[in-house]
Amino acid sequence: MQLTDRHREYWRKNLRMTALLLAIWFLVTYVVSYFARELNEFTVLGFPLGFYMGAQGSLVVYVLIIWFYARYMNRLDHQYGVHEGGRD
Questions:
Q1: What would the pLDDT profile of 69-84 be if each residue is shown by its tens digit?
Q2: Which of 22, 27, 50, 78 could be cross-linked to 39 through a Cys-Cys bond (beta carbons 3.0 to 4.6 Å apart)?
Q3: What is d(CA 10, CA 8) in angstroms, rounded to the nearest whole number?
Q4: Domain that holds residue 29
Q5: Residue 87: inside a domain
Q6: Residue 78 and residue 88: Cα distance in Å, rounded?
Q7: Rounded (10°) angle between helices 5-26 and 58-80
Q8: Does any domain span residue 67?
Q9: Per UniProt, which keywords does this protein have (predicted)?
Q10: Is residue 73 part of a domain?
Q11: Pick from 17, 2, 9, 1: which is nearest to 80 by CA?
């Protein structure tokens, strides 16, 4: 199967967004944990930031990443005409 320029553009945008969201995931998961002691100097809702990110904050970011990716891909699918039938 030969890919057209439109297919390549679609996949390039998809991969670029995936790479960006994976970078955010990496930062939230590993970098924040690595610097937890330094982040504990700041407070969020009365809790040290390092503790908050480990306990709840990272989970909130993960849900936001999933929500954003689904919304972005739905829009991209409609833009390139590759969406599946059903609910929009």
A1: 999 999 999 999 888 8
A2: 50
A3: 5
A4: 5-80
A5: no
A6: 9
A7: 170
A8: yes
A9: Membrane, Transmembrane, Transmembrane helix
A10: yes
A11: 9
Structure pTM?
A: 0.84
> How far apart, in Å, are the Cα atoms of 12 and each of 32, 34, 36?
29, 32, 35
On whether the CB atoms of residues 73 and 84 are closer than 8 A, the answer is no
The answer to whether position 85 is within a domain reads no
Matching residue, tokens 């306990």: 55
Where does the chain have alpha helices with state H?
Answer: 5-26, 32-34, 36-39, 49-52, 58-80
DSSP-derived 3-state class of residue 14: helix
Check residue 57 and report its DSSP letter: I
